[in-house]
Amino acid sequence: MFVRRSLLVLPLALMVVRCADQSPTALNTMRTSETPLFLQWAANVAPQFSATSSKHQRGNGRGDKKSPPISLDRYQATFWAVRGEARSIQINYQSSIDDSTHPFLRLTTSDPEFAPGVGAIARGDSVLITVTVDTTMIGVKFEPSGLQFGDHSELKIWYGGAGGDMNGDAVVDSIDARIEQQLLGLWYREGNDDAWTNLPASQYIADKSFKYALPHFCWYAIAAVRELAVSW
To answer: Do the beta carbons of residue 209 and residue 157 sit within 8 Å?
Structure first.
């Protein structure tokens, strides 16, 4: 249902990761033949997650309006995206390594344009977005599947939760540094039976993150090219 509503975040149930269709220009630079080696959470233990949502205020001098943090007991959160309004959700995690809180994901939307089975979304109307954290690898699923955006939504996802172990051998060494700098990337797939594809996302090694403009929803994960990573 598409209605005008205030922004909210709710805990829900565990699932894996789904994604967004890409533009023809982006597809020309993707790798589809390799098998990804997915980044795992440090020590193969899922952290504790929490989420906040924001409604971005423009021109009133009051800044962003944020919700209080909510624990994601079942690894899922929801918020209302409104066409014509900038709204975002940020998910943080409490590390199993240093007991600190770190950012995992931030999604900002302003122009949800079309939903499968519903059609065009009018300006000022809203759609409920569900974000599900994958606890087996560093990845995320966005729903409703196939939701399309006019102005692309901005996704930033941090991979520091891997604890520096890029190949999953429980040892952090120079090989992991080479994998991070040369092979690591943001990957997506459309459905359970589809192959994973590497996206031309921007990597920021300083804060261990990737940034990407989403044209629509699907599954995302951080991974390296398996054939190359295991040969080092």
So the answer is: yes
